[in-house]
Structures are given as C-alpha cells and as structure tokens.
Amino acid sequence: MSDAALIEIKAEARRAAFARRKAAHAAAAPGAAGRLSEVLAGYRGVPLAGYMPIRTEIDPLPAMAEAAAHGPVGVPVIVAEGAPLVFSRWEPECEMVDGPFGASVPAKGELFEPEILIVPLVGFDRQGGRLGYGGGFYDRTLEKLRAKRPTLAIGFAYGAQEAARLPLEVTDQPLDMLVTEAEVISFG
C-alpha cells in the first residue's frame, strides 16, 4: 500500500472515530474516570503522566488528582514538531498556562519522566492499536521511554471510540491496556 493511500485510510478512520467520540462525549454521564482511578490504584507512587482534556476527550483529571496524592503526576508538553513529548509535574489546583495545540501546561515547568502514560486517543481496537491525532507525539515518546525502561501505556477513551481494526504503521506504539467508562481491556 502506498504512503498516500495509508494517509487517506487513516484520515477516514480518524473522521469516523471523531464522530463517535463526539456523540459519546455528549451522552457521557459524570464519573467516567472511576474505572481509571481503580486501575491506577494498583500503581500508587509510580510516576505517571495523564493529559489535560481538550475538545471531546474523556476527562482523566479526577483519577490524576487521586494519583497525585501518592506520587508524581505530570502532563505532556510539546517542545517541537516531530519531537517526543516531555512531561511537566502537575498537581490539582497548580497554576496552568496555555500550551501548544490548546492544552494547558503547568506554569512551573518541573520536568520528570513517567513510567505510566495515560494516553488520549481518537480510536482504538481490541489488538492494542491506537489512532491519535496524527502528529506521532505519543508514538515517539513511548518509543523513547520504552528504550530506557518498561513503560505502561494506558489508553483512556469512551467505549464508542472502538474500531474493529485500525490502519497502523510499524512506528505506531501499542497500548498495554485500555480503560473505558465501562471496562478495562488488557493487551498481550
């Protein structure tokens, strides 16, 4: 398959997944992060990074706040296009400033390396595949972190974001686990 064909197939998969996510977000009941909190309770004190939700992303902040009481929690910071993410320490109620792509980042900027990443996504499949926004930031980041040490990638999404199969490339980093508002799925 040509690169152009794969790009178009991924773009169509993204459009469909965005539509499903938007509908799921509009219908979501409060407390969707409850399952994520349950999963993270098994990793108390392990440095982790979540994300500041934008648009219709499922909100991990309640689970992140619980985890911050037991160890370091951070959020991603984009430093440059084509570069891996770095992670700035986050705490509930910390001062935030606008970062690239509309996501807020901590004003203080205390960097650290997480061992667990709560990964936002557009779509997922039951084989551990993840479809992101197309910038490759999480793929580059996971590749870099996993080259140093085991790094757990936990996708967090609405169940409606599931696809039967995603168009993936060899550079796409797999998820280890996926948490939805209704279930926890472990891969491999």
TrEMBL record:
Assigned keywords, A-Z: ATP-binding, Ligase, Magnesium, Metal-binding, Nucleotide-binding
Record-linked Gene3D superfamilies: NagB/RpiA/CoA transferase-like
Domain of life assignment: Bacteria
GO biological process, one term: folic acid-containing compound biosynthetic process
A GO molecular function held by the record: 5-formyltetrahydrofolate cyclo-ligase activity
EC number assigned by the record: 6.3.3.2
Cofactors required: Mg(2+)
Catalytic activity from the UniProt record: (6S)-5-formyl-5,6,7,8-tetrahydrofolate + ATP = (6R)-5,10-methenyltetrahydrofolate + ADP + phosphate
InterPro entries according to UniProt: FTHF_cligase, FTHF_cligase-like_sf, NagB/RpiA_transferase-like
Enzyme class: ligase
Similarity comment text for this entry: Belongs to the 5-formyltetrahydrofolate cyclo-ligase family.
UniProt protein name: 5-formyltetrahydrofolate cyclo-ligase
Species of provenance: Roseovarius nubinhibens (strain ATCC BAA-591 / DSM 15170 / ISM)
Organism classification: Bacteria, Pseudomonadati, Pseudomonadota, Alphaproteobacteria, Rhodobacterales
